[in-house]
């Protein structure tokens, strides 16, 4: 888009859009998939199915980008899922194979086990007979065993006593050994390095050497001892039993004589190794004493052990004797043992095999359904992978091109076209994108080239996203909030997007301006901000605006409700009111089913994951098998619960079906009346307003029928329509539903009372006709309702701040803002304020008053309950409406100005006869005129009063609003009629003179008015029918193309006109215009822009066509018919010299008159300025036989009759009457011919 800021610093050169060949090549170059060339042909074909973006190159690139994103993501997911399924199926197939092997193995082991058992039984019989001979030896052996057991018991007692003695000293000894083990080699090296060791070290080492049996205690011997490899281990492993009493006595004497040397503190000071050695020395000396003490007990223990050994030897002897007896038995026993062991092993293996077989068969049986389903899913995944490029192509087209459509039905229709073009028979978009609702589709994937703009007057889009930040553009700190979201990669919804904001331009263009290592940064406004790649931006708009649809940086998503969704919502509301327990039960059931389905899916994924990630034979993995069984058990329980839930849901649906017809009918009616905005932008009806009406109908009618609902909807909708549009809606609904609706009128007072009686925070919008002002009546209503705390403001730019304060003030419970059409630019902010008040549940009644305006915000219209207010039609009613101000009635000229003002107002009902336009004559003009006359009569000379007043009324107060010369002539006539004498006191009795005559209009004007009304009604019904049938622009265009082709009009070779006569030049010029218009029509039908396309789809003739054919019909189908006839006639007469013309077959009558003057000047050899034109109706004049004569036919007259002269028409006269042939004579002014001047008459061509 061309922003003004760029125009100052650069030139813009438009590049034509790529053709299909270029599009195909670009798609092939950018896409990340390897497909055949035919696949890339689909990109331009599918893209060009959407009329809106056929010339948008950036959107085509976004289309490809979205395809790449979807394809890479979906392909990765499908491949990962396929890999898991392959592994899971492989594991189950492997387990099935193992089960068959186990069955065969168990059968073989059973046969071998039976043979081994028989062999063991035979050996056991022989052993039993042989063992009977050894009973005596066994008795003796038993006696020896008994004695041995007694000796063993005594031995245990002695051992217990010895252990008790050693119990106290052994911990000390162990601690000493541990201390020695902790001596570092460096400490020992340090001692060895001493030339003359301290006495403490020498004494300790002397004790250690003597205790270990070394008698040489010289320093050299000590150093040699410490130098031994493994000296620490030798000391630690020293056996104290080697210490003799003599050795112990010498060491004790040394320790007694040198006691200080063996103290721990003293030893530590000498060396780090000395202290552990001293402790070890003391512990071993003490331990030696204990060993000496328990020596008798050990001797007795040894004696017992000796006796025990003797008994054991005897037992061995007896055993040897028994061996002689059992020689034969031994061989049999060995054989028996061997057979028994082999049989036991076989039996154990068999049991293990049977147990594994039973468990395996159970597992395989339980997972058989999963095995079958997974194999089917694997096949389906392979098919999905094959169809994935086409599915991604259709989904990308939907995400990029379809969001702009205003209804779900249109979006689905385009989706069907995309699928058909791609060759997809069935394509479930929601399932493909893993979305529950259609609205979620547009937020699941975003192109890096487009920013999503969501048009959602209901603002439900905000609740559809979780963990998002809301940035309100109406707040001053919005940029700071957006900066933080950019840095931390948050998802942002920019609320209040009502116009293009240049500070957001870099974000909408997705431009990364620089990188520093892993950091990226962009420009936000005039600031450099760090950019996190996880950042996502959504723009939320409650209304459309001019730049929204034309901006190539935006992907517009219009979240208008669909018919099916609306029907489901209304059904839920109906059941909630009629059968609340049923709806609650259904909601609980759906919630439970969703939870169970989610859990079932996660369990199945867990089951598949455990199988695919397992290693080895799963039949040997007990933990895995038990886990699989637990998962399968939970899965079966959930599946059973889901079946029960499905049965309950089926029963609930059977009970709900009785309300479906009403809900669907109500939804259809909503989508019919929603199209009223095609008649007038102010007729926007929001879904929330309709839902509230539906609820009221349900509560007020216990047995609500379709007819009753339709009547209530019509009553509610019609109060917000102007009278003509009420009739259109009535006819439209009557024809579609074969009914006869009743029209009920509602006064403004009743409307406001009904609004105020509702406890809800309601916004009332009073739509006024031009010049109507209900302010005084609203004040009276407020007074009658005893509303003391109310605020009423007539809006202007100076009152915006006051209005905002009044709306935010909790004290003002009733606020009325009038003349909102003067502050349309502020209305989006007003809409935001009212939404915030509604969200905060503030109990405030708000009345808005405005005239119709095309830029009135849709969100404000849809949240308002509308009422149309206009002045009562009729001259008398207009005069009476001016009597509201008693102070003005005191002015002498009140009646004169009142009737004059009423005539000016009432003539607007007869456009284009009364006025050519619907001028804005209001109460302020009337008041200004009264004050002006009063002041003029006081200050201006009486001689000039009348002319002065006429001039001000005719040229300033009323005449200053006129746009055409014909309207200025009418105003001049009215001023002269009503202000011909200020001295007279004007009083008119409307009963003695018809209102039409007072207005100065033809007597048969009502025939024209009724005819125009019927035409407008028919056009209005046609508009609603066309909108309700949901024909796309392309379909409408196809019908027009077919109609145009039927005319067989084609451009011809353009002819230069310089060599022809003026009249022939005129016709050649007309034919060239025909060629231009033919080319223009063909171009618009084949390559129309949005504006032209909207005109054509609404059966309106584009202005560019009317520029070349100004008198052409306003309806495009009639225009084509009329132009076809005119073009053929002009081409037929292109080189004709006949001067008889039918003005209905010309494009420009004014140009014809100029050509005729030039032709007359040439033929008569007279200067153009010397020509004088005379013309006659219906008869030739023989006196002009020497002049240049032309005849014109095809004229008609409206508002009068012609019979040699103009005469008044009667009330029953036809609307149009044909005029006779017009004879035009061009005469030389200076000729002798003298003809009396004949009055001319102004006529209008068809």
Automatic annotation (TrEMBL):
Residues 1042-1228 form the Dynein heavy chain C-terminal domain. The keyword ATP-binding applies. Signal peptide: none annotated. Residues 85-151, 308-384, 579-606 form a coiled coil. Gene3D superfamilies: 1.10.8.1220, 1.20.920.20, 3.10.490.20, 6.10.140.1060, P-loop containing nucleotide triphosphate hydrolases, Region D6 of dynein motor. GO terms for biological process: microtubule-based movement. Residues 442-638 form the Dynein heavy chain ATP-binding dynein motor region domain. The keyword tRNA processing does not apply. Keywords: ATP-binding, Coiled coil, Cytoplasm, Cytoskeleton, Dynein, Microtubule, Motor protein, Nucleotide-binding. GO terms for cellular component: dynein complex; microtubule. Residues 897-993 form the Dynein heavy chain AAA lid domain. Belongs to the dynein heavy chain family. This is Cytoplasmic dynein 2 heavy chain 1-like protein. It comes from Leptotrombidium deliense.
């Amino acid at each position: 888009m061309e922003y003004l800021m760029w125009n100052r610093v650069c030139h813009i050169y438009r590049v034509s859009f790529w053709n299909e060949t270029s599009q195909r090549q670009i798609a092939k170059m950018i896409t990340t998939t390897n497909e055949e060339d035919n696949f890339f042909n689909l990109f331009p074909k599918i893209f060009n199915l959407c009329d809106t973006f056929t010339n948008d190159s950036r959107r085509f690139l976004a289309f490809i980008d979205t395809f790449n994103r979807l394809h890479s993501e979906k392909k990765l997911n499908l491949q990962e899922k396929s890999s898991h399924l392959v592994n899971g199926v492989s594991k189950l197939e492997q387990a099935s194979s193992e089960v068959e092997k186990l069955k065969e193995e168990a059968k073989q082991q059973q046969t071998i086990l039976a043979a081994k058992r028989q062999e063991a039984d035979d050996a056991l019989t022989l052993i039993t007979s042989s063992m009977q001979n050894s009973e005596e030896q066994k008795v003796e052996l038993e006696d020896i065993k008994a004695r041995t057991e007694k000796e063993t018991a005594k031995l245990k007692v002695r051992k217990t006593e010895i252990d008790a003695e050693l119990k106290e000293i052994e911990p000390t000894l162990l601690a000493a050994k541990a201390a020695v083990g902790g001596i570092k080699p460096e400490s020992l090296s340090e001692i060895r390095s001493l030339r003359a060791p301290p006495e403490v070290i020498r004494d300790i080492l002397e004790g250690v050497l003597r205790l270990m049996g070394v008698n040489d205690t010289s320093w050299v011997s000590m150093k040699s001892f410490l130098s031994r490899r493994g000296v620490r281990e030798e000391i630690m492993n020293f056996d104290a039993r080697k210490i003799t009493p003599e050795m112990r006595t010498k060491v004790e004497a040394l320790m007694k004589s040198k006691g200080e040397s063996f103290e721990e503190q003293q030893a530590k000071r000498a060396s780090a190794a000395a202290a552990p050695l001293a402790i070890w020395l003391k512990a071993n000396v003490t331990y030696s004493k204990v060993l000496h003490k328990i020596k008798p007990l050990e001797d007795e223990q040894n004696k017992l052990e000796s006796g025990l050994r003797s008994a054991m030897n005897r037992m061995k002897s007896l055993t040897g004797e028994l061996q002689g007896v059992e020689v034969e038995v031994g061989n049999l026993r060995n054989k028996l043992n061997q057979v028994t062991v082999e049989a036991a092993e076989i039996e154990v293996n068999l049991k293990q095999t049977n147990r594994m077989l039973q468990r395996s068969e159970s597992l395989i049986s339980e997972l058989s359904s999963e095995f079958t389903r997974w194999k089917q899913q694997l096949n389906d995944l392979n098919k999905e992978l094959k169809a994935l490029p086409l599915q991604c192509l259709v989904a990308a087209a939907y995400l990029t091109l379809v969001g702009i459509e205003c209804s779900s039905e249109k979006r689905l229709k385009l989706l069907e076209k995309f699928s058909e073009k791609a060759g997809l028979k069935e394509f479930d978009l929601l399932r493909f994108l893993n979305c529950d609702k259609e609205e979620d589709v547009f937020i699941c994937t975003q192109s890096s080239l487009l920013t999503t703009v969501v048009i959602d007057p209901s603002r439900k889009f905000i609740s559809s996203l979780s963990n998002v930040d809301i940035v309100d553009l109406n707040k001053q700190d919005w940029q700071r909030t957006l900066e933080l979201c950019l840095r931390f990669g948050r998802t942002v919804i920019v609320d209040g997007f009502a116009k293009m904001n240049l500070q957001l331009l870099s974000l909408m263009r997705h431009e990364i301006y620089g990188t520093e290592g892993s950091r990226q940064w962009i420009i936000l406004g005039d600031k450099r901000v760090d950019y996190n790649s996880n950042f996502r931006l959504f723009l939320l708009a409650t209304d459309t605006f001019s730049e929204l649809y034309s901006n190539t940086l935006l992907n517009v998503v219009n979240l208008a409700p669909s018919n099916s969704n609306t029907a489901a919502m209304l059904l839920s509301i109906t059941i909630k009111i009629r059968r609340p327990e049923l709806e609650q039960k259904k909601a609980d059931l759906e919630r439970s089913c969703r939870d169970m389905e989610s859990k079932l899916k996660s369990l199945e994924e867990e089951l598949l994951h455990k199988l695919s990630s397992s290693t080895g034979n799963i039949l040997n993995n007990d933990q895995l098998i038990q886990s699989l069984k637990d998962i399968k058990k939970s899965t079966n329980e959930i599946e059973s619960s889901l079946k029960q839930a499905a049965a309950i849901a089926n029963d609930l649906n059977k009970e709900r079906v009785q309300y479906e017809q009403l809900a669907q009918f109500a939804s259809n009616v909503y989508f019919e009346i929603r199209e009223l905005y095609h008649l007038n932008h102010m007729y926007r009806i929001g879904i929330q307003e309709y839902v509230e009406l539906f609820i009221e109908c349900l509560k007020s009618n216990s047995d609500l029928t379709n007819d009753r609902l339709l009547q209530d909807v019509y009553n509610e909708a019609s109060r917000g329509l102007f009278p003509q549009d009420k009739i259109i809606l009535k006819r439209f609904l009557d024809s579609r539903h074969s009914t006869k609706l009743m029209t009920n009128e509602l006064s403004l007072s009743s409307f406001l009372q009904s609004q105020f009686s509702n406890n809800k925070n309601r916004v009332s919008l009073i739509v006024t006709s031009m010049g109507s002002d209900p302010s005084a009546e609203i004040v009276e209503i407020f007074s009658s309702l005893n509303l003391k705390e109310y605020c009423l403001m007539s809006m202007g730019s100076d009152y915006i701040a006051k209005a905002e304060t009044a709306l935010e003030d909790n004290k003002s419970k009733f606020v009325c803002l009038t003349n909102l059409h003067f502050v349309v630019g502020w209305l989006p902010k007003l809409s935001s304020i009212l939404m915030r008040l509604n969200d905060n549940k503030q109990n405030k009644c708000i009345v808005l008053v405005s005239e119709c305006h095309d830029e009135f915000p849709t969100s404000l219209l849809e949240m308002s309950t509308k009422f149309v207010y206009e002045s009562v039609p009729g001259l008398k009613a207009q005069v009476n409406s001016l009597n509201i101000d008693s102070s003005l009635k005191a002015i002498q000229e009140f009646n004169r100005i009142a009737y004059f003002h009423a005539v000016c107002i009432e003539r607007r009902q007869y456009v284009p006869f009364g006025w050519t336009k619907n001028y804005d004559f209001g109460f302020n003009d009337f008041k200004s005129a009264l004050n002006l006359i009063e002041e003029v009569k006081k200050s201006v000379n009486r001689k000039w009063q009348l002319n002065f007043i006429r001039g001000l009324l005719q040229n300033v107060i009323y005449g200053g609003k006129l746009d055409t010369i014909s309207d200025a002539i009418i105003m001049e006539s009215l001023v002269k009629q009503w202000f011909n004498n200020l001295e007279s006191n004007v009083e008119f009795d409307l009963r003695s003179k018809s209102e039409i005559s007072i207005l100065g209009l033809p007597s048969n004007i009502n025939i024209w008015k009724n005819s125009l009304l019927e035409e407008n009604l028919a056009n209005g019904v046609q508009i609603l029918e066309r909108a309700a049938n949901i024909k796309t622009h392309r379909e409408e265009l196809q019908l027009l193309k077919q109609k145009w082709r039927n005319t067989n009009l084609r451009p011809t070779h353009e002819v230069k006109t310089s060599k022809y006569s003026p009249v022939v030049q005129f016709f050649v010029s007309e034919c060239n215009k025909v060629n231009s218009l033919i080319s223009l029509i063909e171009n618009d039908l084949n390559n129309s822009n949005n504006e032209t396309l909207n005109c054509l789809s609404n059966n309106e003739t584009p202005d560019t066509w009317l520029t070349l054919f100004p008198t052409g019909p306003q309806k495009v189908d009639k225009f084509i018919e009329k132009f076809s006839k005119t073009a053929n006639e002009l081409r037929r007469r292109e080189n004709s010299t006949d001067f008889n013309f039918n003005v209905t077959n010309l494009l420009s009558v004014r140009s014809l008159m100029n050509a005729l003057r030039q032709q007359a000047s040439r033929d008569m050899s007279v200067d153009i300025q010397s020509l004088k034109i005379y013309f006659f109706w219906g008869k030739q004049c023989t006196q002009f036989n020497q002049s240049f004569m032309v005849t014109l036919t095809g004229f008609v007259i409206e508002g009068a009759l012609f019979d040699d002269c103009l005469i008044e028409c009667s009330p029953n006269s036809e609307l149009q009457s044909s005029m006779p042939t017009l004879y035009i004579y061009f005469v030389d002014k200076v000729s002798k011919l003298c003809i009396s001047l004949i009055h001319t008459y102004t006529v209008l061509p068809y």
